[in-house]
Specification:
Blueprint (H helix, E strand, L loop, with lengths): L1 H8 L6 E4 L3 H10 L7 E4 L8 H21 L24 H11 L12 H9 L8 E4 L6 E3 H11 L6 H12 L15 E7 L2 H4 L14 H16 L21 E2 L2 H7 L16 E13 L7 H14 L19 E4 L1 H9 L4 H11 L1 E3 H10 L10 H6 L16 E3 L8 E4 L8 E6 L7 E4 L19
C-alpha cells in the first residue's frame, strides 16, 4: 500500500494487490495518507494455504479483472464514511453511566471494560495543572490521518483511569508513536504483537509504578492505567480496530508498564534499559518496542553465572520462532529479544563480577538453535524469506555474520541474534524469587524507541510580557 500511495502522490495511477480480508485496512491506510479512493485487486484465499496452481487460477479468475478495471475505469465508489466523526468538544453521549457506556461500546470507542466518561470538565482538569496547550499537535497518526493532540491524549487517559501526574509519561509515549523510527503503522499486523513500555528514572518511584512482585500483571494503578491508555489511544486515534487497521489473528492482552527495579540497578552498578539509547540513570525515560510472545523461565537454579546461564539461554532460544526473520528477511539484524531478570538473578551475575554486557555475551553463546531449524523458521515453515536460502549462502553474500556458517553441518548451533549487543536485559519482579521472563520482539514492526519524560510545567500557556525599561 505504501508503494502505491507514493506512486499516487506522484500522479501515477495504481491498483494495490491485497489479500482477502485486508480490504478495509488497505482503504484506511490510504485515508491516513489523504487518499480516499485507493483501487484494490483482491487475492482470493491465503497465499500460504493454497497450491501455486490454485493461487494462479484464483488470480486469473478474480483479480486480473479488478486490476484492469482499476486502471481503466472511472472510479464511482465513494470513500467509506467515518460515521460522522465528532469534533473534540462535541457532546457525544448523555445519560447515566450505563447509557454512556452503551454509546461508547456501539461506536467502538471503548476496549469493553468499564471506563471513566471523558467529560469536557474532566479532560480540562486532567490537563490544567501541567500548563500544556490542549490543542498542540504532537504529530500525525499515519494510519488514520488524525492529529495527535494533547487533548486526545488526555481524553483517552481519563477513560483509562490515569492520574494527571501520568500525563508526562503519556506524552513521551505519544512522541514515540509519532516517530518514524518506531513505526506505529505496523501496530495491527496479523501476528498480534503488542507494545511494551519500559520505564526508567526517578519517576518510577515518585509516580508509584510497581517494580517488584507481580511485575507485568495488572494490579497497580500506574502500571495498569498507563498500559490501558496506550491500547485505547491506538484504537481511538490511530484506528487500530477490527474495522480498520487491526488485523491481529489472535492478539495479545494489553501489556502493563514494565518499570525497572532501580534499587537493584543502583546496588549492583548495572545501567538501565534507557542507557542503551544514550540516557543517564537520573533521566526519566520511557522505551517502547513491540513483542510477539512471552515465555516464563521459572525456578532458575544455581548460585553462579555458569550454573544459571544454560537455562536462561535455553529459554531465550525457545522464545524465538518465525520472528527470526527479523535477523534476515523481513528485517536486517533487527531481532532484539528482551530478557527480564528478577533482582536476585541479576545479583547472582553482579556478585560474580559480571556486567550486563558479560551476560549478553553469555547469552550469545548459550541461546542457540540448530542451523536447520533456523532455516526452516525463516523460510520453509513460515515462508517469510525470499528464496529460502541456507545460512551458508547468506554468510557468503555478507548478509549475516560469519558465526552463522562456521561449518555446513545442519546440526551446528547458531545464535538467534547477530551479535551480543542485540540482547536487551531489564531487571524487575519479586526481589526474592529466581524467575526470568523473555519476550520475542517484532523487529522493525515497532522498533525500540526511547524518549525523555519531561515532568516540568509546560510553558505552552504562559503569557510572556517583555521587560520594558523603567516599568
Amino acid at each position: 500500500m505504501r508503494a502505491s500511495i507514493a506512486a499516487e502522490q506522484a500522479g501515477i495511477p495504481t491498483v494495490s494487490i491485497v489479500c482477502e480480508g485486508f480490504e478495509r485496512q488497505s482503504l484506511a491506510t490510504g485515508r491516513g495518507h489523504g487518499l480516499d479512493d485507493m483501487r484494490l485487486g483482491v487475492l482470493v484465499g491465503h497465499v500460504d494455504a493454497q497450491s501455486t496452481a490454485l493461487m494462479v487460477d484464483n488470480f486469473m479468475t478474480f483479480t486480473v479483472d479488478q486490476i484492469v478495471a482499476g486502471l481503466t475505469e472511472a472510479q464511482t465508489r465513494q470513500a467509506e464514511s467515518s460515521g460522522g466523526e465528532p469534533a473534540a468538544l462535541d457532546v457525544v453521549a448523555t445519560g447515566n453511566i450505563d447509557e454512556v457506556t452503551q454509546v461508547f461500546n456501539d461506536r467502538g470507542w471503548s476496549d469493553g471494560l468499564p471506563f471513566i466518561p471523558p467529560t469536557v470538565e474532566r479532560v480540562q482538569g486532567f490537563i490544567a495543572e501541567s500548563g500544556h496547550d490542549p490543542w498542540r499537535t504532537i504529530g500525525i497518526a499515519k494510519s488514520s490521518g488524525r492529529d495527535m493532540t494533547i487533548w486526545s491524549v488526555a481524553v483517552n487517559a481519563v477513560m483509562a483511569g490515569c492520574r494527571p501526574e501520568h500525563l508526562p509519561v503519556l506524552l513521551a509515549v505519544a512522541e514515540i508513536l509519532a516517530d518514524d523510527a518506531y513505526g506505529a503503522e505496523h501496530s495491527g499486523n496479523t501476528t498480534g504483537a503488542d507494545a511494551l513500555m519500559i520505564l526508567n528514572g526517578p519517576c518510577v518511584n515518585e509516580l508509584h509504578f510497581n517494580t517488584g512482585q507481580g511485575a507485568l500483571r495488572e494490579g497497580t494503578l500506574a502500571n495498569t492505567t498507563v498500559g490501558r491508555w496506550l491500547r485505547l489511544y491506538l484504537r481511538n486515534v490511530f484506528g487500530f480496530t477490527a474495522d480498520e487497521h487491526d488485523k491481529a489473528t489472535f492478539g495479545n492482552s494489553t501489556r502493563v508498564v514494565l518499570a525497572e527495579h532501580h534499587e537493584t540497578l543502583d546496588d549492583i552498578g548495572w545501567p538501565a534499559v534507557s542507557a542503551e539509547f544514550g540516557f543517564e540513570s537520573h533521566d526519566d525515560v520511557v522505551t517502547m518496542a513491540r513483542f510477539n510472545s512471552g515465555l516464563i523461565i521459572g525456578s532458575v537454579f544455581g548460585s553462579t553465572p555458569t550454573e544459571i546461564l544454560p537455562y536462561l539461554g535455553d529459554g531465550v532460544a525457545r522464545s524465538a520462532g518465525w520472528d527470526l526473520t527479523h535477523v534476515y528477511g523481513l528485517g536486517d539484524a533487527q531481532f532484539r529479544p528482551l530478557l527480564v531478570l528478577s533482582p536476585i538473578l541479576a545479583r547472582v551475575f553482579a556478585n560474580a563480577g559480571w556486567s550486563k554486557d558479560d551476560v549478553k555475551a553469555g547469552l550469545f553463546e548459550h541461546a542457540r538453535i540448530p542451523a536447520w531449524r533456523f532455516e526452516k523458521l525463516i523460510g520453509e515453515w513460515s515462508n517469510l524469506t525470499m528464496g529460502r536460502r541456507p545460512l551458508t549462502e547468506l554468510v557468503a553474500d555478507g548478509l549475516v555474520p560469519a558465526v552463522f556458517a562456521e561449518s555446513d553441518d545442519p546440526e551446528r548451533l547458531v545464535p538467534i541474534v547477530t551479535e551480543p549487543a542485540k540482547f536487551m536485559i531489564a531487571v524487575a519482579g519479586d526481589p526474592t524469587r529466581t524467575n526470568a521472563y523473555v519476550l520475542a520482539n517484532d523487529g522493525p514492526h515497532g522498533d525500540y524507541t526511547a524518549k525523555r519524560i519531561d515532568r516540568r510545567p509546560s510553558p505552552d500557556l504562559l503569557c510572556e510580557v517583555p521587560n520594558v525599561a523603567g516599568s
